[in-house]
Design goal:
three-stranded mixed beta sheet; 167 residues; single chain; GMP Synthetase, Chain A, domain 3; mainly alpha
Length: 167
Amino acid sequence: MARRSARARRKQAAPLPTAELVDSTLRWLRLDDTVHGLRAVRAFGLAAGARIGRRARAERMRGHTLYVRVATAAWSQELHLMRESILARMKEIPGGAEVEALRFEVGDIEALPDWTSPSRPARRAAPAPSRAEPIDAAVHQALAAVEDVELRNHLAELLARAAQRGR
């Protein structure tokens, strides 16, 4: 009977969440800073999107600063102006909450891996408007003048949707 009462007095340990176990194991192996940096690099890729991802990629994390390599000085300046909105989007993605500042450096981005998730479905091409009347010629000319291919495709998709809905 004494055995039973000793078990009853023993504090029962509650099971720990897996994330807590992984974090403590990473701290024990002294890999937590590396993993936090990789999570932040991936969070930047997801928060920035495909358009920015073709011109800038996160490289490394030091402290709470994420260093991002950009293709040109013009993109560095553009991203510098957008950094607050990128940081806000990163805060919503796992791994991005640790980042407090972004630093941009001009260099070869092709040497860096693209850490965005490959499991995303590919975007479909914009469907042609189903309505019989053509898009206004002035709108079509303006659309053709847009140099950014991705932006032009998005605008064409919006026009096609609006035409389908009769707007």
